[in-house]
Amino acid sequence: MIAAAAAWLGALQLVGALVFASAGLLDMCARGRSAAVRRQIWALAIAVALVLPLPRLALPTSELRLPEVAATAWLVAWAIGAGLLLARLVRGQRLARRRARRARPIADGPWQATAREVGGPRAELRACESARTPMVVGLVRPIVLVPVVMLGAPAAERRALLAHELAHVARADAMVALAGGLARAVYWPNPLAWWALRRLRAHAEDAADDAALHTGIACSSYAAQLVAVARAQLERAGRVAAGGLRARVRGVLDARRIRSGAPRPLRWGVPRFIAAALVLATMVTACEARSAEDDGARPGVRP
């Protein structure tokens, strides 16, 4: 039983690597498309990876058997790694909810007026003392947390910040990022799973930056705004993701990049998106089963 479970989990990791590698290839082929399109590629790949275990339960048990000790060690190592990553994910969600509870609602004023001006999805605005940058928390009822130090920002800066965060709300990036974290926990031995989450986050930020630039703010002004926010984060937290900031500033200033503009309402709801992922995962599993049948039907190979 332990050996069979270890073999099943190992095969799942290999098929998951194929899914992430295929998404990476599609991402490379889509370099001429907008960041929103490339983000969608990774979101679908992560959804496929998450539902992939379901159709694979119907596959026959693999004939490959590991020694009992090796199989047990593999399962224990995977469970420890997955448990640590899931605990980290739960801790992040709890911290976000705590921040939202402690933040005070922004009932009226220039931020609410700017939110109505920007348009897009409805989201509650709250002023947060502990937030270093604007952020979206909440999966069902999203809340935009605005740092208290930014409440006096000029109108153009308010408009760009809100357009960026409301783009995250419109594309349900908080839910997609949570799915990416779950996929990383399941496939953590696979480096491609970590890469997939990084690419998803990067394209989501680039797509939201495109939405901010769609408001009419100059690219140079928005790039300077990103640097100022990073500098404030560095002063308060003592660290900043310099690589990610450099890539975002370079993308904002790149006049040749195709920009997605303001996000449209989602064509697919979450159930349809999950259904599409399940169909793709079933197709992958069917191809794998057909390949195993063909190998078993060859002469000299035991079926």
TrEMBL record:
Entry keyword set: Membrane, Transmembrane, Transmembrane helix
Domain of life, per lineage: Bacteria
KW Manganese (keyword) present: no
Matches recorded under InterPro entries: Beta-lactam_resp_regulator, Peptidase_M56
Transmembrane intervals: 6-29, 41-59, 71-90
Segments forming domain Peptidase M56: 58-235
Protein name: M56 family metallopeptidase
Annotated source species: Nannocystis bainbridge
